[in-house]
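Tutorial, part two.
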Amino acid sequence: MPQADQTTKQCLVGVTLDPSSLGGGSADQEHERAVAIYDLIERNHFALPGHEGGPYLAHLAMIERRLVFEIREADGEPVITHHLSLTPFRRIVKDYAMVCESYYAAIRTSTPSQIESIDMGRRGLHDEAAGILVERLASKVEIDFDTARRLFTLIYALHWKG
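Running the prediction step on this input gives:
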């Protein structure tokens, strides 16, 4: 497994998703989730305001339509658990699901320019969700935009269950 930049302690070195929160995704979705976790661990900024610890492990779960974001020290020692309402993401997740479905279908049958157009829309929604995530976590967790994008991919993965 790749390691985050160890010159700073303000990073994630492990991310897991609650198996009971996940459902079966398509091969494309499973691949996207694995890549997001790999990229997130490889490079991220993750700091807890007022906490001198780190690096961290994160465990994400979906419980009663809320994101449960459990943070631990790298040695497994619990630090904090945040519960985040996903209501602000409801529209984006719905739109993102439709665009992703179109994107995966287009990869198999469309021209490169059509695929690129759909992908631009997908990236736009992804960026919008990342901005909301940075804003919603601001007082709890300090993350950069790329970290937020990868975390949104994982939040979206928790919605695949239906």
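Confidence is low (pLDDT under 50) at residues 1-7. In part three we will examine how such features are distributed along the chain.
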